[in-house]
Amino acid sequence: MEPGAEHQQQLRSLRDFLLVYNRMTELCFRHCVCNLNYRLLTGREETCLDACAGKLVRSNHRLMSAYVALMPSIMQRRVADYETSVAQGSAQEGPAAPAALPGAGAHGAPLDLPAAPGPDGPLQGAPGAGTSHG
Amino acid sequence: MDPLRAQQLAAELEVDMMADMYNRMTQACHRKCVPPHYKDAELSKGESVCLDRCVAKYLEVHERMGKKLTELSLQDEELLKRMQQGTGTT
């Protein structure tokens, strides 16, 4: 990978990680912090926050694994459907120039999705972050 | 992309994320401390104190989450290294 593209990828990973971090903070705060009579966190709140953080990280890993497992077949199906429709269209029109395959981004899915598990994604941008282990 | 530009982008990203965090914090604390009655435009003492404490707690939660995320990420990395070493020696 070129250094420029690698930097872009790293920035994207970092951005994803920071977004997840902010969402986690908001979610866990909303759920666990109920007692605003004190400035400091209570023991109960601390326990809840630790559990919340662990649960969210693990569920994020699991979601990522499931997504990576399912997405390639969905993309393949989409490509096959598109190719079929293009072939049908060009057969009807005659020897017209077939349209180029539009970016999968038109359907909202990223083109650079790797087929193999263990992509760079949320929580991978953390310093020394690991990959999902399912 | 040269490293300086990458650094600049990373700094901009951090500023964006801090702004995002601030917005979420505002929303969360408003929801917790200011009941939607709106009889009076002024903040009551209870609401003011609640907001102060809420901000303090939110920032502490944010710090705690950061540490926990780093800790869990490092654990994952350790596990992955051990797995890779295990497959390497067999």
Automatic annotation (TrEMBL), chain A:
Record domain Tim10-like: where: 8-67
Alphabetical list of InterPro entries matching this protein: Mito_inner_translocase_sub, Tim10-like, Tim10-like_dom_sf
Pfam families: zf-Tim10_DDP
Compartment annotation: Mitochondrion inner membrane
Family listed: Belongs to the small Tim family.
Assembly mode: Heterohexamer.
Record-given protein name: Mitochondrial import inner membrane translocase subunit
Organism whose genome encodes this protein: Grus japonensis (Japanese crane)
From TrEMBL, chain B:
Keywords tagged on the record: Chaperone, Disulfide bond, Membrane, Metal-binding, Mitochondrion, Mitochondrion inner membrane, Protein transport, Translocation, Transport, Zinc
SUPFAM superfamilies: Tim10-like
Entry GO MF terms: metal ion binding
Localization per record: Mitochondrion inner membrane
Signal peptide span: none
UniProt protein name: Mitochondrial import inner membrane translocase subunit
Domain of life: Eukaryota
Known role: Mitochondrial intermembrane chaperone that participates in the import and insertion of some multi-pass transmembrane proteins into the mitochondrial inner membrane. Also required for the transfer of beta-barrel precursors from the TOM complex to the sorting and assembly machinery (SAM complex) of the outer membrane. Acts as a chaperone-like protein that protects the hydrophobic precursors from aggregation and guide them through the mitochondrial intermembrane space. Mitochondrial intermembrane chaperone that participates in the import and insertion of multi-pass transmembrane proteins into the mitochondrial inner membrane. May also be required for the transfer of beta-barrel precursors from the TOM complex to the sorting and assembly machinery (SAM complex) of the outer membrane. Acts as a chaperone-like protein that protects the hydrophobic precursors from aggregation and guide them through the mitochondrial intermembrane space.
Domain Tim10-like, residue spans: 7-71
GO terms for biological process, alphabetical: protein insertion into mitochondrial inner membrane; protein transport
Membrane topology value: Peripheral membrane protein
A Pfam short name: zf-Tim10_DDP
Quaternary structure (record): Heterohexamer.
Domains as described in the record: The twin CX3C motif contains 4 conserved Cys residues that form 2 disulfide bonds in the mitochondrial intermembrane space.
Family: Belongs to the small Tim family.
Gene Ontology, cellular component aspect: mitochondrial inner membrane; mitochondrial intermembrane space chaperone complex
InterPro entries, alphabetized: Tim10-like, Tim10-like_dom_sf
